């Protein structure tokens, strides 16, 4: 496994909120592999099957990603990645997991485009379905090491209003 993740530094002001064994992401990741929550395979095709995906969904996504990496530019029409993030998926083992929501929040969220429209697993817009803030990923990202929304309850309500406002603006603009 390549070491491309971040380890929480000892001088982080929120370090006390993270259990010691979780401060190095590799520990928790290996526990997930050992428990079967994360699948480890030698080929993309094996991983696609282990995750129960339709044939060629993951294989094609990896081909598209690697083509973007080779070109040095992300061409996917949703969220454009910074070129420094374009690291090809080319060396086994390969890892994958099925993700979903949890009670009261999502941690990864649905994939959306700039109009807040939800994108399906094949990259197409799902007509009439929009997502805002936490449902679309929200504040539960890299800047949030301990898993709590960065602004607390009232900030989250404001952010949810903003996501809803953006989705409504997109809907009105398309009528």
UniProtKB/TrEMBL annotation:
The FAD-dependent oxidoreductase 2 FAD-binding domain extends over 35-147
Which GO MF terms are attached to this record? steroid dehydrogenase activity, acting on the CH-CH group of donors
Q: Which InterPro entries match?
A: FAD-dep_OxRdtase_2_FAD-bd (IPR003953), FAD-oxidoreductase_2 (IPR050315), FAD/NAD-bd_sf (IPR036188), Succ_DH/fumarate_Rdtase_cat_sf (IPR027477)
- Classification via Pfam families: FAD_binding_2 (PF00890)
Names of the cofactor(s): FAD
Q: Which UniProt keywords apply?
A: FAD, Flavoprotein, Oxidoreductase
Q: What is this protein called?
A: FAD-dependent oxidoreductase 2 FAD-binding domain-containing protein
Organism, as annotated? Adlercreutzia hattorii
